[in-house]
Write a structure and sequence with these properties.
By secondary structure, the chain is mainly alpha-helical. It has helices spanning 11-23, 26-33, 37-51, 67-97, and strands spanning 56-59, 62-65. Helix 1 packs across helix 2 (26-33) and helix 1 (11-23) packs across helix 4.
Amino acid sequence: MVPRYYNLPSLTALTAFEASARHLSFKLAASELGMRSGEISRQIKAIEDDLGVPLFVRRGTDLMLTRAGQDIYSVLASSLLKASDVVRAIKRDRSQHGASNDAFTST
């Protein structure tokens, strides 16, 4: 098995965290992502266990981001927004000009 190129949790866990942090709610994140609240909670716990620090302070049903949570959220939100902008531009260009077969080789 090839090791992961980036030392990151799964994309599923990261998107679960990002939505939870944005909404400050596991329930709203679950609804947005089509998951159950328990699955969101397990994804967050997996990240917290991997990092060894909590990402949220839980007070009953209220959530607040810890400093580590704020740090990760700001980078994730920015990166996902940029990715979303690129996807939107590609779709717009495709609809205006048709599909492109330009080749690209990654380095």
